[in-house]
Amino acid sequence: MELSEAVRRRAERAPGPRRRSRAGLLIVAVGALMVVVYAAAFLGVMRLEGHDFSWISAVYWTITTMSTLGYGDVTFESDLGRLLSIIVLLSGVVYMLVLLPFFVIQYVVTPWLDRRRMARTPRKVPALLRDHVLLVGSDAVTQAFAARAERSRVPAVLVVEDPVEAGLLHDQGRQVVVGPLDSAQTYRNAGADRARLVASTLSDTANTNVAFTVRQVSGDVPVAVTASKPVSTDVLSLAGSDHVLELGAVLGREMAGRVLGTTGRVHRIGSFGETIIAEAAARGTALVGLTLEQAIGELRCCVRILALLRKGRLRPMKPESTITESTVLILAGEAPELAAYDEQFQVHEQSEDPVIILGGGRVGRSASRELTAQGLPNTIVEQLPGRVENSYSALEGTASYRVIDGDAADQRILRRAGLESASAVLVTPRDDDLNVYLTLFCRRLRPELQVVSRATYERNVATLYRAGADGVLSYATIGATDLWNHAGLSHRVLVAEGNELFLVPRPSSLVRRSVRDAEVHRRTGCHIVAVGDEDGTLSYDTESIPSAPGKLLLLGDRHAERLFRQTYLKHRRFRSGDRAGAAR
Fold first, then answer.
1. Model confidence over 524-580: pLDDT tens digits?
2. How many Cβ atoms sit within 10 Å of the Cβ of residue 393?
3. What is the CATH number of the domain that holds 198?
4. Is the separation of the CB atoms in 142 and 135 below 8 Å?
5. pTM flag (> 0.85)
6. Torsion angle, CA of 253/254/258/259, rounded to 10 degrees?
7. Rounded Cα distance, 481 and 498, in Å
């Protein structure tokens, strides 16, 4: 569970002061009532046995019995009295050993611990801290950014309003500043005027207020915010935001860009300067059946094969590795070179098969717009009638998409949408459980179909791959990567969920080693795919790592990146001058 979600649910479960007082009074009243009733019963049974006791003695006997002390100086002689003793004893155990400790922990110990945590949560960053990134709020995107910053040794400070949430983040080792998000003093305490970026991922209205407030502190610091609705983009820009990220639209475009089609054509997924990073499916091309060495020999252009993917997983880059129908090639080259690759390998006489989009929300509609712009026919399956047509009023005259109303989990609906002839399925709902179900469902109906699925939380990415997804993209990773690149940090390109291309300073310990050094991959899990200059320009005409200062382009997941930095860059910390490297 993401931290913000856990805190929200905890807050929902946690009683407020008024409710806490009522519960405490109720527990005390129940205890007092039990003592009065049992004391009265004690006096009644004792009179039946011919004994006369005072109320003080009755209360004394009740409390000693309920608390299991049982001094034995007052006892019953009859079975009725012994039965009453058993009842008082058992109810006393439940009350004093269960209810009272719960009351003490819930209403005394826990608030005391929360107050201690609040008291030690930082309200201000050190005066010497600069070139840091301020992350306003704590959701999946900011958590992913903060984790990436920790691996890269980039200072990142989370600004949150809830002291309890701030305490939990502080306990996890995150840099935190707690304070009202609509107060300029909070951002002064967080050093907004010295930051390289302020990023806010709250609601559109809250982001507007944050942008206005930050601008009171500094008119120069870049401000990046997320937007849920397209209409909010202009308002957020007017409020002072330099960069507005529509996560739903970006995720939809990224998912559409991962549709490989059936003709082997190149799809751009990112760039480093003039070098374009692209992917191309081997299916249906002359590359199928060749080894990697043979494929490189077949290339008539200067395109470089950076990696081989299959089912979203990296495959060994060995000369004898075979390219199959399910292989995806990660390519690098300039635009003319990639065009030459298309000319050589794309199956021009074959038209693209349609794409099915499950879900007509913001992500699904954005994916459909992107596919429509590329001239790819697509079909949206949406359960709510009329939802998509209203959103597509601006696309009058286009005829490359159609809408099917119905449940995407119904096999008959999918067949009406054209599942049998589709080239790919995009699974776009917000619910990860539903996405796992739909991914597995489509994979079983058509095992050879390309399935690209959306994940809201990073923890479900591995599950979606196991369910049969060829590619998975998550809100957290897409948002964190966009904000990271906008902050001017080491540029990154998301290849597949969990695998990124990223630049690092060139370690002196790797000088004159082969670019394809197997030991680096064995020790860290990172693949060295290219060598770059100080400005991030990639070069592909070298087989060994030169001694001149520069950068390395690596491919790997977050664990591999952490191992590489610990192994080869452990003495190097982030410097403000490093930003000049690769952001494009």
1. 888 888 887 776 667 766 677 887 778 888 888 888 888 888 888 865 554 444 443
2. 7
3. 3.40.50.720
4. yes
5. no
6. -20
7. 12
